[in-house]
Amino acid sequence: MPPRWPRQPDRADPDYRRLDDRMNFAVHVGIFLASNSGLWFVHNIKQADWSWIIWVTGIWGAILLFHLLYIVAIADYSKKSHG
Prior knowledge:
Pfam families: 2TM
Helix content: 55-70%
Mean pLDDT: 89
Protein name: 2TM domain-containing protein
Number of strands: 0
Distance between the termini: 39 Å
InterPro entries: 2TM_dom (IPR025698)
Keywords: Membrane, Transmembrane, Transmembrane helix
Oligomer: single chain
């Protein structure tokens, strides 16, 4: 059963923003894992000389860590006064 939001979704709602950012991070992790495991699988099966694969994984992993750092420590989910 998919998760349900108890009220009208609104990006101005801090709880909704926090959940949305974490779901986006989970999608980012899933795409990273699927793509990189596929790349490394093909790399190992073909025994190709792909020296760039380390850079792709490393840079993308660093971006992923920054994404995690942002949603855990930097993002401000407090209510902002309008007006």
